[in-house]
Design goal:
single chain, mainly alpha, globular, Growth Hormone, Chain: A, 17 helices, about 75% helix, about 0% strand
Length: about 425
């Protein structure tokens, strides 16, 4: 894979991450303006549901896009996703009612769902070794993390600047959304010019699936579900806690998410560095879940800046480890159905984030249980520890089939299925 081709894919991941995260610090203020209601219950409910609507669309459409990329090609799926995302994100700025806001956010998710599965699968198609795959997956994860760093800062800074100048009202929300659309269009242009398909081969090993492959995929999807549910609840909970409890403005809330991005960037670089062999990364799953639950449980009970930063850093560190490790092992284990498996993984992660975001908003102001958003998320994460215990033993390191197994034609695979006695 050429450097410009990889750069285009990195920009695609960055653009979609910016598009998702730029809304986080703005959303409570945008809802307040469109709904005309300033009560905390209304803001909490719509903040959670709107965030959940985006990722629910990804849950519904990511398996479809992943399967299409397997059957057709990766590059057209990526292009369609980026162009559609840019168009719908631009339309998002024109909506002046809450129902249309929900529609726009759903359409954003539909097209965003096409990008990550196809991008990861395309990089996997080019993989020459496990180390090669792990390094480039790290770059993709870092690009997404960088987008999550830039997005909230951009949204918070623009909103703060608009309140200090005459550039206010509906126009104050346009700049970050238009910037995200332009990034997506630039990524689409670079993908069209520089990205090419890899020649995918059906290997001898792909003719016979391992008996436990489906169990492995289900457990990995389960870990993705519980971890992203917790992350979604944390994102909404921190936005609401910052505005309603701590009295932060959009810029300060953006800085909290910026801290998360820095920590995620650091741990991703360390975990997938030459210091750690790719096969060893499976042993980070159980500790990552435990640290995530611990951080979530601590967030609502700390008040000082240093203590809050430590709790947020624990959540961010585990959030930086778990998704890329799960994605790596799904890609490595998927075989010829890599796009479909990555689509299912994206769907599971998105469902978790949708449930976490919606639940986080609705639970935030529950009076019977204080700090219900964070505590409930921590309990869900702890429930996923059981799946991780046995999974680390099932993920047995194996040779890269692209290097060690000879390629065979599609016709040979068909003949082998029809006449298995010939290959006994």
């Amino acid at each position: 894979m050429q450097r410009l081709s990889l750069s285009a894919l990195l920009l695609a991941m960055f653009a979609v991450s910016v598009g998702y995260s730029v809304v986080l610090p703005i959303l409570p203020f945008l809802i307040e303006r469109l709904s005309g209601a300033a009560d905390s219950v209304t803001l909490s409910r719509h903040t959670g549901l709107l965030t959940g609507t985006y990722v629910l669309a990804i849950f519904l459409f990511a398996p479809f896009w992943g399967k299409v990329s397997d059957l057709r090609a990766r590059r057209p799926v990526i292009l369609l996703g980026l162009i559609g995302f840019a168009i719908t994100f631009t339309l998002f700025t024109l909506f002046e009612s809450l129902p249309l806001l929900y529609l726009g956010r759903f359409l954003d998710g539909v097209f965003a769902a096409a990008i990550a599965p196809a991008v990861y699968a395309l990089v996997g198609d080019h993989a020459q070794s496990k180390e090669w795959r792990a390094y480039r997956f790290t770059l993709l994860n870092v690009a997404a993390t960088a987008g999550f760093f830039v997005g909230p800062l951009l949204g918070g800074l623009v909103l703060r600047a608009s309140r200090d100048t005459t550039f206010a009202g509906a126009d104050s929300f346009l700049v970050p959304f238009i910037a995200a659309s332009c990034l997506a269009l630039l990524a689409a242009l670079m993908t069209w010019v520089f990205v090419s398909e890899a020649q995918r081969r059906i290997t001898q090993a792909a003719m016979t699936e391992r008996a436990d492959k489906r169990v492995i995929m289900l457990r990995l999807c389960g870990i993705a579900f519980v971890s992203t549910l917790a992350i979604g609840a944390f994102e909404v909970g921190m936005s609401l806690r910052g505005k309603q409890t701590l009295g932060m403005d959009a810029y300060q809330i953006g800085m909290v998410f910026a801290e998360c991005s820095i920590v995620m960037f650091i741990v991703q670089v360390l975990v997938f560095s030459p210091l750690v062999k790719p096969d060893f990364t499976r042993w980070f799953l159980t500790p990552g879940l435990f640290v995530l639950a611990l951080g979530l449980a601590l967030v609502p009970f700390v008040t000082g800046y240093i203590a809050t930063s430590i709790a947020v850093a624990l959540v961010a560190a585990s959030a930086g480890i778990l998704p890329p490790v799960v994605t790596y092992w799904v890609s490595l284990s998927a075989g010829e159905t890599e796009g479909a498996e990555l689509g299912r993984l994206t769907a599971a992660a998105s469902l978790g984030q949708a449930v976490g975001s919606a639940g986080g908003g609705m639970l935030f102001n529950v009076s019977l249980v204080g700090n219900a958003t964070f505590i409930a998320a921590a309990i869900v994460v702890l429930s996923g520890l059981g799946a991780s215990f046995s999974l680390t033993r099932r993920l047995v390191p194996r040779q890269n089939t692209a290097e060690k197994c000879p390629a065979v034609s599609t016709g040979a695979v068909t003949r082998a299925r029809r006449h298995p006695h010939e290959h006994a």
